[in-house]
Each structure stands twice: as structure tokens, then as C-alpha cells.
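Case study 2.
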Amino acid sequence: MEEIFLEMMKTSNESYEKTTIYEDGKVEMEILKRGVLSKEEKMISFIKELKEQLLAAYDKMLITYQEEQDSTYRVSFNQHDFYSLDLYLDIHLMVKFNCFRKLSVFSKYEKEKEKLESEKQLEEAIQKLDSYEKEKREIDIASLGNDDVMETERNIISFQLEESDTFELGQSRFFSDTIDLPEDLEIPELLEFVGQINLKDVSPYDTKNLLPKEGMLYFFQNPYIPNHFYEFGKVIYSSNPALKRQKVKVSNQDMILNLSLKEIQNTVEKFSDRYVEYNGQLEYSPFKGSEYNKIYGFFNNCQLSEEKIKKISQKYTVLLQLGSDIYGEGVTTFLILEEDLKNRRFDNIIYDYNQS
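Prediction:
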């Protein structure tokens, strides 16, 4: 008795096509269409190659076709039923034209494997980012009383940003896909590069004398993950002058802006400028001050009240604010305690992003 190697069935309404392939390469085909049954027999010349390929692909088919449950197309092989149009068509065309071809499951499996690996990496990234979110420092103004007095004017280092085609090694820049790092310094895992400031560029304008005179400050923030909200950042200071350029991953290609610093200056920010006239009276505007790209000055967050802005500005130093000319209505701020800045402790940074 001839031993069956593989069976295929295509069913639709009251019609079917059945193909039986035997170990010796013999093929029997039955077609029932409109109540009429027809049969055909033929031999295929590639039975050996087909056997070898199906056996090599068997484990991949178990994974790739496990979720396909359309019973219209069924391929029975090695005591297992696969419900796959791809597999059915691959073998059907081989039989029809007596021509061996590579099964599409191999390429489909690689895509599925890439998808599973990507999902696994995303899951691991989310777990790591969740831990970052739990560990981040929050703004704390509970220790400040209502009688604390805040000065009304502050010296700031302000700067403009403009697009640049090229950067010298160690040049200050923001939203670039390259970073200049010492070889012994690693980019924080999963975080996205915001920018680097060469302190030689800004320290001449530092009338508060809090910043290091030389070295680099590197700014990072959480990546964008769909359906997950994160808000944390990190700042790294390095005094090592031996820099090496490397590429950085950027999840949003639209944010590769390659911006350099220009018009750096020491100027005065007045808190009184945050009041605007409305119906003949001056009222506090939560959006005033958001236009600055700056170091130092008053904190800005359009979601917070004037009282809270004053309290935060009393306690924390603005290490960097990137204003609304970059983010539209949004503002990104890195806050630090003055004592930490004096002692070059950048591990306790507070990151804040807000928009209306």
C-alpha cells in the first residue's frame, strides 16, 4: 500500500480540491465543483527536495502558522494540520508546474522572529523605563514657608539656537544625531540625547560663578514610547578633554535639528515681565518666560500657579531651559539645587517638561 506523505485540502461552500502526495512522488488530485467530481494523477520530480525542505521548515511552521485558523486551506504533514494559504499555495504551485521552489515560511518566520524579538526588547525597555520613572526626583517645595522672599530680578545666560550643517569636535549643540564623549563615558541606557554644552562657551557669561569653567555637560531625557508616559532626564558632567564623536539613536527623526548656540549673553530676567495687562489690570501669565533658552533665572511651567513657580524658583536653580521656540508651546527644564551645582553633583537632577 502506498504511503501518504502529505495531504492538502481547499474547501469552499460545496466545492473542494484535495491533493494527496505519496512518498514516491505520485500525486492524486480530486476536484469537486458544481456537483461534478474530477480526478487527476501525476508524478513530481522533486519529492526528495520537498521532503527535506518541509522537515527543515517544520518547527518554523509550527511557530509561524500557529495563529492561522482559516479552515479553507489545510495542509496535513507530519501528523499536524497547518491552516495556511501561504503554505498551501507554495506546494500547490510546485505540483502544478512540477517545479521546486523555496517555501515562503522561511522569510515569514524571520519576520515573525524579528517581531517577537522587537516586542521582547520593547517589554524589557518598558520595565527599565518604569524603574527610571519610579527612581526619578520630584520637585519638593514643602520645606519652604510662605514668608520666603524671592528676588525680582535674576542674571541669566541666554542663547539662541540655529541650524548648522557641521560641528567641530566638542562644539555645543542640541537635537543632533551625534555626540562628543570621552571614551570612558557611556550614554545612559535607553535615554535620548538632548544636547551638549561646552562650558567654555557659556562660563564667560556666568556672573554667578556656579558652573565649571571647562568640561562638558550632557543632557538626556526619556524616549517616547507609545501608550506609555515618562518624564525624567539625566545630566552628566565630564572634565575629560579627550573627546570622540559617535552616533546616537534617535527615535523621532523629525527631532534631528542639529542646532548650535548663537548670541550667548548675560542678561537680566525680570519676574515682573510675567505680568500682562488684562482689562486694565496686571495679571500673572503662566506663559511669559517660556520663550527663553537659558541657564539660571526663574522656573517656568504653564500648569502651575504663580505661588508655586516662585517657591520652586527659590529652591532650585535652572541648569537648562529650552523654550517654546523649540517645542512650540512646550518647555523643557533641568533643575538642580545650588549646593549640588557648586559641588559638581549632577545625579539629583529634576527634569520637567510641560505644555498647555
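The first strand starts at residue 4 and ends at 12.
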